[in-house]
Structure formats: structure tokens, C-alpha cells
Write a structure and sequence with these properties.
411 residues, alpha/beta, Rossmann fold, 2 domains, 16 helices, 16% strand
């Protein structure tokens, strides 16, 4: 809590508090006739600088002089997710390709000129993929040490504008070389989504008070709320398939889903963050969606945006006059994979939430830890870890927990 909530507040102060707005998603947003720069990773700073620089008419003129239609910034994984939460999608910043399992596919379209890799989630083989498709892999963090990458341009806040221009110049110079390799990609899908939800924007949609949301929960129109904070993994299912299955089952049972992380991108690409997705929701949730003009799955940001979820859950608990463990709220990581998922899960458990995880974590050799998080923790923080690999069984257990909390609250 002491790390994740300040992170939210700091990023909102730097880059503005998210507000709902339409975005474009999926690999079809990459147009090979433009100079395309992808900020990729988990830190939005260089991406924000690139978006600002790319809107300069002089930059667009340079790109056209090189034979391109213009220059675009294309968001990828969590850096892209941070950007689409806060920046409008237009003809310069064109949206989000997808989560980390899509980054090699994005390069393989043959439409990217610079892949600016920050901090995390750049696959070790990406330099070879980039070389095959005419893309320059440029680390913008000293944490990225992929063999075969270009000389790093390590982000420096004092030189952000200069560094963004340097990346732009590299991309424009690379455009004719990349185009000379040919573009073998077919026309790919472009999807729609609504991004940019936050505690503040939800309060705004509710007229400045949580009462309409609380009334919907009390009446049973909304059974509860699920915070989905997930990676994506091929360990035991297809890309995002487990995340999509669990989410569809939750919304069909009138549970509002707040999505974060790579799983959030998977749900955006799957079309579950559109107004039309209300047709997949149960009757109560569908009515709430129609009343508020929101999707049944709200984009709450990245895997490091769990502080935003904690703020909202805390506000609901305060409004009801109960502690967090008493709420009909659950957290789920349907396709957890790496260290930030572990941090998110521990934060949710410490906060007192029921936390579902899949696949089975690599902790079964530590019986005392397993006993702590699955048996003892409810008596300590109120939180509980539930491991379930079957999507329907996982949702059934979450719904049972939600109903038990509703019964205890007398609603």
C-alpha cells in the first residue's frame, strides 16, 4: 500500500488523472506506410515525451520528406497501457497493440521503425526478430540488456525532449531501410475499447458520490466487484483465453470487473471493454451499464495501477462503514506470471481481499507459506489466497465468497 498508492498519485500528478475515452487496439493500428515508434515496457515517461514531440508539425514534415505518410506513436504492453489511459488516441498516437505476448507479432508486421524498450518485458530474442523485419531495438533503460540491441538512450528527465527527438530521427532515417525489406503483413484487425477509468472518473459518472454504486450493490443489481490484475501466459492455456473466460463468467453473473495489467489488454482486444459488451452481462450489470454508459469491464490501467483499485475499494468500505474484508469484492489473476503479479497479490492479501490465482504458483514446496496464505491469513488480515486452474470453478468460488459477504452485510 505504501508503495502502490503513492505511485498512482505521482503518475497522476505527472501525466493527469485518467478519464474515460475511446481508444483503438490490436495489431491493425500499425500502418507500415507511416514511420512507427513503439514505446514498450512499464514506464510511461519516454512514451509521453514521444507523443508530445510527434505532434510537432515539423516532425511530421520530416517523416513525409522521408517518403512516409507521417509519424506515429504505437503503444505496447504496460507502457502503452499507461499512455492510452491518459492520452487521447488520434492520428499521431494511435492506440495499443496488445500485451507482452503480442510484441514479437507487432515487430513481425514489418511496420515498426523503432522499438523503444524500457525497464521490463522485452523478450530476450527480440533483437533477432527486429533485425529480420527492419526494426531498430533501442533500450531506453539501463535495465534492458538484450543482445543485439542498439546503443541505449537511457531516459533522463532533464533531456526527455532531446531524447525523444533522437529516437524520432532514428526512426525516420530507418524508414526507407525498413520499407526496402518489404511488408508481408496482411491487413490486421483494429478493435475498439474505452479506457481511462479511475476512482475520480467513476465518482464523476456517479454525480460525485458513490451512492448510486452502493445502491446497485445493496439492491443486488451488482452482486459485487472483481479486480482483475493479471499477466498473460502460455503456461497452461492460449494467450488470454483463461482471462477472457473468467471475465465473461463474472460479468454474466452481475459482477463488475475492473481490469489491470496485461490481462487488461487481452480484454480490450477481446472486445469486452466496449459499450456493446453489456449484452454479455447479467441483467443487473447490464442495467447499470446502460444507466451509466459504461462497459461491464472497466479499464483501470496496468499491473502497477493496483493502488488505484485499493483507493476505490477503500472508498467503498468507508462509505459503507465497514472494513475491506467485509466487502463483496474479490481479486483475480487468471494468468499470473511474474514478479509484479506476486507484489499485487501480496498487496491484495494484506488489504484483506479474497485473491484467486492461476496457474499454480511455484510455492508448493513451502508448506508453511501455503498454510499462511490459504488457511491462516483470514484471521490475520481477512485476505485469502485461492488457487484454481478451472475457470468455471474459480468463478464459482469467487461468487460464493461474494454471496457470503453480502449475507453477512445483510444485503
Amino acid at each position: 500500500y505504501g508503495a502502490q498508492v503513492p505511485l498512482e498519485l505521482a503518475q497522476d500528478a505527472l501525466f493527469r488523472t485518467p478519464q474515460p475515452h475511446p481508444i483503438k487496439v490490436d495489431l491493425g493500428i500499425i500502418d507500415p506506410e507511416y514511420v512507427n515508434i513503439v514505446p514498450n515496457g512499464h514506464e510511461p515517461m519516454m512514451g509521453a515525451a514521444l507523443i508530445a514531440a510527434a505532434h510537432d508539425p515539423a516532425v511530421q514534415g520530416k517523416a513525409r520528406a522521408a517518403g512516409a505518410k507521417g509519424l506515429r506513436i504505437v503503444g505496447s504492453i504496460e507502457t502503452g497501457q499507461e499512455l492510452v489511459q491518459r492520452f487521447a488516441v488520434d492520428d499521431v498516437f494511435v492506440g495499443l497493440t496488445g500485451n507482452w505476448l503480442s510484441e514479437e507479432l507487432a515487430v513481425a508486421t514489418g511496420g515498426l521503425d523503432v522499438f523503444a524498450a524500457d525497464m521490463n518485458c522485452t523478450v530476450p530474442t527480440l533483437a533477432k526478430t527486429c533485425a529480420a523485419h527492419g526494426t531498430l531495438l533501442v533500450p531506453v533503460s539501463d535495465l534492458v540488456g538484450v543482445e543485439g540491441a542498439e546503443k541505449p538512450i537511457v531516459f533522463d528527465p532533464a533531456r526527455a525532449d532531446e531524447q525523444a527527438q533522437q529516437l524520432i530521427d532514428m526512426a525516420i532515417a530507418n524508414f526507407p531501410k525498413r520499407r526496402a525489406k518489404g511488408n508481408g503483413a496482411p491487413t490486421l484487425r483494429i478493435g475498439d475499447a474505452v479506457a481511462g477509468f479511475s476512482t475520480e472518473s467513476i465518482l464523476g459518472a456517479l454525480g460525485g458520490t458513490l451512492e448510486p454504486l452502493l445502491d446497485a450493490i445493496k439492491s443486488g443489481a451488482l452482486k459485487g466487484v472483481a479486480g482483475l490484475v493479471s499477466c498473460t501466459t502460455l503456461r497452461d492455456s492460449g494467450q488470454d483465453s483463461h482471462t477472457v473466460a473468467i471475465t465473461k463468467e463474472l460479468i454474466a453473473n452481475d459482477v463488475l470487473v475492473l481490469a489491470m495489467g496485461c490481462g487488461n489488454a487481452g480484454l480490450q482486444v477481446a472486445g469486452l471493454q466496449t459499450l456493446a459488451a453489456k449484452e454479455l452481462a447479467g441483467p443487473g450489470l447490464k442495467a447499470v451499464c446502460e444507466q451509466l454508459g459504461v462497459p461491464p469491464v472497466l479499464s483501470f490501467g496496468t499491473c502497477t495501477d493496483t493502488g488505484r483499485l485499493m483507493l476505490l475499494v477503500g472508498a467503498i468500505a468507508n462509505a459503507l462503514g465497514v472494513d475491506v474484508p467485509a466487502l463483496p469484492v474479490v481479486a483475480t489473476a487468471p494468468e499470473y506470471m511474474e514478479q509484479k503479479a506476486t507484489i499485487d497479490a501480496m498487496a491484495a492479501l494484506a488489504f484483506g481481499l479474497y485473491v484467486h490465482v492461476n496457474p499454480v504458483p511455484f510455492v508448493t514446496g513451502a508448506p508453511r507459506l501455503v498454510k499462511l496464505v490459504t488457511e491462516d491469513l483470514p484471521g490475520v488480515t481477512g485476505g485469502k489466497l485461492a488457487v484454481e486452474t478451472d475457470a468455471k470453478a474459480a468463478v464459482a468460488a469467487m461468487l460464493a465468497h461474494i454471496e457470503a459477504k453480502r449475507a453477512a452485510l445483510g444485503i
